[in-house]
Amino acid sequence: MTITFITGANKGLGHETARRLIELGHTVLIGARDPERGEAAAAALGARFVPIDVTDDASVAAAAANVAEREGSIDVLINNAGVHGPAGDPSTLTGADVLGVLDVNVAGVVRTTTAFLPLLRRSPDPVVVNVSSGMGSLAHTHDPSRAESKVVAPLYTASKAALTMLTTQYAKAWPDIRINAADPGYTATDLNGHSGPQTVTEGTDAIVGLATEKPGAGSGRFVDRTGEITWS
Length: 232
Prior knowledge:
Layout: E1 3-6, H1 12-23, E2 27-32, H2 35-45, E3 48-51, H3 57-70, E4 76-79, H4 95-120, E5 127-131, H5 138-141, H6 154-173, E6 178-182, H7 200-203, H8 205-211, E7 222-224, E8 227-228
């Protein structure tokens, strides 16, 4: 039985990823900051709720200890929790704005991955999926034919560029773990006011695909629902 831990899984892409992986036979652990929403999501899906706030070292450590005690290991870690931050004219951005977005989207991934690394290493085929975005791609955001080129979201885009690079560095450092980044695409979620043309099911295709690949599928890749994509 594959054991999968997903952060930010009480709604949106995380919730739909959990639903689909449970359908495929995974034992899914719903990680969420809000206990009420996390418990409700887990109950609705047939998962187990684990409290986690990816911006808090103690909370992340407690989540890892919870899983170590109950399950003993995990096979798949999906770093899905993320925030958008201010959009539009960047002239009023502050250092606090920057740190707030990076704390969730980048440092939160580092905290969680570090804490869960010993549990992943107990798996015969450990997998990490970082939910990044084409909004962090230079190619996508400079292509006038793509939706990514029409959005001004300085902190979100910068954080996702950093997350994709972080993924490649993890992949180089840990050849025994398959670590990849997923681009969900422009999907209707709370993050964008449900303006995206894709459904959450379509938006989770890349995440689910990476979480269910066979051993040896490759590491350090950036993948969307159509396959591997360029980042630069």
